[in-house]
């Protein structure tokens, strides 16, 4: 293996020395010298009217609008357009009006793909080798998109585009997500004039952690049409409104809209009428789904006729081997997921309809990406009622799923289907999200339409491409050269290759001949029709077993002839395999992939990243404050005290003093029925409630919760004691604590509760007395 490392270092150095930028522009442009005349008064002076900042100002003729649609956790065999069992008429529409790409690739994980999409560079090149919450102190993994890799949005804004981002933003470092920022990697700093969505990995579709611009807000009570609120509908409403307003005010200014849904990532939550459309359609299970899907894929021509269906891994159960009660609940989970997918495609259709109604569809580039990675197997072998149990390695009993079968998809659950359904969604490929070694994790369906420029209709393009190719495609389509300098910072060369050459020529030779893939130790390299693959561990486990990352069991596929990676040729062609493994390590050195790291939940440790709370043991918070977990003190399995200074009026008071998280995991200190209560929610699997044994006194009162952990180790229990004015008023136990992550999207709240309730009360349950401050003391 040392020979691979030496080879990698030498070749990477040569590549870096050879890299030069041909870009000429420096953005933003310096102010133009005044070309009028300045006299003593206006009568003997000549004014020069400033120019509007529109594309025509920079010599761009009839610049197209741009709509990028990015669906979350979506497999190649999920959408009907690519042979899946879920009708997706909007994606069908884009495909009919343009081109279908059946060899398009992502990084195998969400925020890495999104960073690569926006910058046109590989995910490790922009510090996004893994999600930011698992970032480490190495350049390829720090979670920070560097200033030397400006986004395509930043560039287009300088050419007069109106840029708006709706939905998921998982590219803000976890420790920069609070109200104090810094904001230099929020949406506006990445080139967008407007942002409406959530900042993080996923969100509750019924109660999202909404952000508008930089401000955290509560969602509306209903959608604009008066129907019950849903996040995907909300962002579609806002996108439509923004596009219409932009064209009404400045019709000469093109828009760039990035519509990044939280769907179809967990939680799988959708109005019941959409679930009911699929009742009974998946009763024959995931094995039958895969067989039917590959047949449809061949009929549609989105896979070659000789494509082999890869076998189901031995670690996933055959559908027919399951007991009837398990098949029943798993089929219902798939119905919910299908409804979620169909609803998402419908809302995308509303956005496209609005562009059509404005007469702008002909000159709008629509890129509809059906996935930022493969379908997610993070629901485990048995599916989940609550995704937070996966991230905390907590088992869920089957009986609880059976009891919830009629309420799946509602706001009562943060549900996720079983891993075998994810594998089926990735038909015909092996594996799923996280697995960068195989196409089940990295190959996603995509369609591009631009009627004014792309004359082909409904044709398939099979050139090998990657998400880093989107940014240079847009720049070439618009007629812009990537800048050499942005905001005074020299730019790394764009690493993507424009796909414009494929628009008119279905038989054009591939221009992307090499592409590495790596995610959490899963490794692969594509080169000239061949692919070497080394898989690290199954995606439904929270942590990988020990292994030697430098001596992985590599497989070899001739993917030019074997579309689905069905036949391993490693034994027949060891020389080719050795060549590709060397190339992988060369590319790894070149693009900041090293050091290889296969840790998963272990990397969630906050000590790996910057922290606003580092070195502090005392935190004093004012009333009505909200903080994301990345900016909050880490109380997990640590002894601490929660101290609230309040004034309780005659007649008593009630309401939240402090909470973190909500219905799906968290804890809180609150007053109810004039008694102090501490409630701990272990991801919905167990709950512990300690209530004072007497009413609280009135007037100025200091309320305190003393949490004494058994040890500073994951899952440690704790003794909990309650005090009022230093008088003991109650005690109890938390038998088991949250080990890794309290929440993915909810906040630490002072004086009220937002999102979902951590206990049995109605939101926002604002404290009705006077809350002066809450102090958190780490012990």
Q: How many strands, what sense, and barrel or not for the largest sheet? A: 10 strands, mixed
Biggest sheet, spatial arrangement of strands:
8-7-6-5-9-2-10-11-3-12
And the CATH topology of the largest domain?
A: Alkaline Phosphatase, subunit A
The proportion of strand residues reads 15-25%
- The structural domain count equals 2
With helices defined by DSSP (H or I, 4 residues minimum), what is the helix count? Answer: 14
CATH class category of the largest domain:
Alpha Beta
Overall strand count:
31
What does this structure look like?
The protein has 779 residues and is of the alpha+beta class. The protein folds into two domains: 55-507, 3-Layer(aba) Sandwich (Alkaline Phosphatase, subunit A), CATH 3.40.720.10; 611-778, Jelly Rolls, CATH 2.60.120.200. Helix 1 packs across helix 14, helix 5 (231-249) runs parallel beside helix 8 and helix 7 (285-300) runs parallel beside helix 11 (419-425).
Features:
single chain, alpha+beta, Alkaline Phosphatase, subunit A, 10-stranded mixed sheet, 21% helix, 21% strand, metal ion binding, signal, EC 3.1.6.1, Sulfatase_N
């Amino acid at each position: 293996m040392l020979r691979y490392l030496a080879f990698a270092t030498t070749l990477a150095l040569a590549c870096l020395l050879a890299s030069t930028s041909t870009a000429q522009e420096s953005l933003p442009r310096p102010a133009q010298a005044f070309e009028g005349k300045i006299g003593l008064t206006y009568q003997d002076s000549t004014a020069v009217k400033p120019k509007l900042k529109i594309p025509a100002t920079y010599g761009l003729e009839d610049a197209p609008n741009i709509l990028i649609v990015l669906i979350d956790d979506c497999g190649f065999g999920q959408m009907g357009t690519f042979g899946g069992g879920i009708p997706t008429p909007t994606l069908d529409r884009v495909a009919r009006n343009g081109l279908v790409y059946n060899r398009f690739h992502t990084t195998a994980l969400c925020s890495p793909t999104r960073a690569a999409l926006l910058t046109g560079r590989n995910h490790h090149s922009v510090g996004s080798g893994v999600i930011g919450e698992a970032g480490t102190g190495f350049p390829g993994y720090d979670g920070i998109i560097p200033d030397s890799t400006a986004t395509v949005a930043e560039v287009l804004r300088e050419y007069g585009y109106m840029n708006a981002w709706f939905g998921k933003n998982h590219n803000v470092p976890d420790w920069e997500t609070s109200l104090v920022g810094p904001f230099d990697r929020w949406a506006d700093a990445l080139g967008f004039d407007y942002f409406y969505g959530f900042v993080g990995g996923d969100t509750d579709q019924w109660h999202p952690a909404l952000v508008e611009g930089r401000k955290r807000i509560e969602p509306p009570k209903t959608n604009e049409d008066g129907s019950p609120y849903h996040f995907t509908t909300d962002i579609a409403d806002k996108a439509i409104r923004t596009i219409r307003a932009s064209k009404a005010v400045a019709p000469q200014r093109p828009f760039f809209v990035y519509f990044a849904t939280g769907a179809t990532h967990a939680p799988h939550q959708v109005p019941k009428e959409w679930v009911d459309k699929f009742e009974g359609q998946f009763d024959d299970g995931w094995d039958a789904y895969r067989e039917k899907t590959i047949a449809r894929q061949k009929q549609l021509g989105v896979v070659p006729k000789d494509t082999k269906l890869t076998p189901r891994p031995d670690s996933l159960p055959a559908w027919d081997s399951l007991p009837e009660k398990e098949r029943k609940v798993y089929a219902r989970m798939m119905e919910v997921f299908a409804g979620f997918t169909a609803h998402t495609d419908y809302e995308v259709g509303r956005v496209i309809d609005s562009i059509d109604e404005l007469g702008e569809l002909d000159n709008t580039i629509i890129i509809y990406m059906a996935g930022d990675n493969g379908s997610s197997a993070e629901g485990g072998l048995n599916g989940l009622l609550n995704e937070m149990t996966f991230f905390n390695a907590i088992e869920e009993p089957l009986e609880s799923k059976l009891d919830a079968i009629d309420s799946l998809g509602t706001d009562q659950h943060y549900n996720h289907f079983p891993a075998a359904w994810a594998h089926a969604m990735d038909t015909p490929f092996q594996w799923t999200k996280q697995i960068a070694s195989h196409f089940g994790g990295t190959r996603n369906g995509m369609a591009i339409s631009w009627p004014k420029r792309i004359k082909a209709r409904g044709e398939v393009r099979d050139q090998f491409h990657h998400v880093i190719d989107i940014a240079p495609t847009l720049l070439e389509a618009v007629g812009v050269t990537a800048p050499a300098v942005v905001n005074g910072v020299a730019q790394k060369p764009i690493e993507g290759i424009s796909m414009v050459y494929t628009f008119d020529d279905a038989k054009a030779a591939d221009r992307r001949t090499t592409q590495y893939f790596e995610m959490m130790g899963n490794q692969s390299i594509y080169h000239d029709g061949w692919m070497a693959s080394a898989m690290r561990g199954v995606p439904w486990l929270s942590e990988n077993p020990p292994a030697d990352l430098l001596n992985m069991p590599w497989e070899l596929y001739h993917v030019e002839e074997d579309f689905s990676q069905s036949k391993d040729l490693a034994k027949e062609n060891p020389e080719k395999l050795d060549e590709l493994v060397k190339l992988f390590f060369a590319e790894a050195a070149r693009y900041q992939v090293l050091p290889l790291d296969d840790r998963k939940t272990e990397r969630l440790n906050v000590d790996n990243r910057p922290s606003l709370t580092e070195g502090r043991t005392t935190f004093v918070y004012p009333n009505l404050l909200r903080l994301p977990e990345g900016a909050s003190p880490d109380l997990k399995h640590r002894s601490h005290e929660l101290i609230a200074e309040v004034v309780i009026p005659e007649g008593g008071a009630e309401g939240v003093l402090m909470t973190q998280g909500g219905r799906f995991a968290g804890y809180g200190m609150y007053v109810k029925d004039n008694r102090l209560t501490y409630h701990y929610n272990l991801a919905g699997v167990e709950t512990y409630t300690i209530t004072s044994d007497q009413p609280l006194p009135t007037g100025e009162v200091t309320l305190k919760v003393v949490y004494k952990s058994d040890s500073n180790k994951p899952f440690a229990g704790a003794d909990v004691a309650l005090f009022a004015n230093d008088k003991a008023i109650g005690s109890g136990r938390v038998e088991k604590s949250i080990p890794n992550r309290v929440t993915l999207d909810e906040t630490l709240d002072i004086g009220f509760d937002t999102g979902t309730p951590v206990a049995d009360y109605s939101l926002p349950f604002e404290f009705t007395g006077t809350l002066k401050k809450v102090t958190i003391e780490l012990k």
